[in-house]
Amino acid sequence: MVATEFLEELEKVHSNFRWALTPDTGRWPERRSGQRLRIRGTYKHPSGEFTFEPIGALCYIRTGKINGVDAWIDSANAIQLSLIDAGDLTAAANDRTWASFPDARKPISHVHQLRTQLVASVGLGTKP
How many domains does the chain have? Predict the structure, then answer.
């Protein structure tokens, strides 16, 4: 599976979760002017509530397997998502759309585009 197929599948199942943009509290002090907002979905299960990142959410729907929010590689492998695409999708979900270059910090255009598509796929925004 590649990123476009993943986004199509996620859009079909996104209503099984309560999606939100949650602050990243694990990286302080932050040099940015605003907090990073991670895309996370909460699933109500008879045994409790589980929080997923987008790849883990689709993995759960397809396989019933629950991986931690940092175990995106395990989730990607379980749904046969390309690890290169999984890394980009995880960066997009975690609001990591900029990179440091020798001369300056610059946006990573394809990761920024993926973030826009992820936000739309989970129902938090509009389709580009």
Answer: 1
